[in-house]
Amino acid sequence: MESNITTIKQIKILDIPKIEDKKGRGNLSVIEKDCIPFTVKRVYYLYDVPSNAYRGGHAHKNLYQFLIALSGSFDVVLDDGNQKKTITLNKPNKGLLIPKGIWRELENFSSGSVCLVLASEEFDEEDYIRKYKQFLQFKS
Fold first, then answer.
1. Is 60 a catalytic residue?
2. Where does the Sugar 3,4-ketoisomerase QdtA cupin domain start and stop, copy by copy (predicted)?
């Protein structure tokens, strides 16, 4: 049985390849092959989130996520049950890899921000841990 003891140390910012156009027409980033360490089975995005609102507030038992700020910025508050860390995402060529078993909350969305999420699994309500007390029990 795989351990539920994932930690803040396993959270990584990964570079997404950036192709700069020599004619000044903008940049292109591509996620393919082994850019992220899982096969993408679900893609969704958050947008029009008011600056005083937050998203997330849960953990996953098995699912891994890769978050990218396609536009604007937002903070990701991460919690492994022992430590907390806040990471600001604000570059479309950087992504945040969140392993299973990490509590996450997204907040401080700038105007016009868009958060793209690539997930290792399709939606499964049974995979969510939505109550923090249950999250701590899952981690022990």
1. no
2. 10-139
**And the tokens for 68?**
């990218």
- What one-character DSSP code corresponds to residue 125? G
Return d(Cα 139, Cα 46) in angstroms, integer. Answer: 28
Mean pLDDT of the chain: 95
Residues 44-66 have pLDDT tens digits of 999 999 989 999 999 999 999 99
DSSP 8-state class, residue 109: P
CA–CA dist 119, 116 (Å, integer): 10
Q: Which one of 58, 61, 91, 94 is the catalytic residue?
A: 58
Q: Which domains does the chain have, with CATH numbers?
A: 8-139 (2.60.120.10)
Q: Tell me, what DSSP letter sits at residue 38?
A: S
Contact 36, 97 (CB under 8 A): yes
Q: Residue 1: what pLDDT?
A: 38
Supply the pLDDT for residue 33: 87
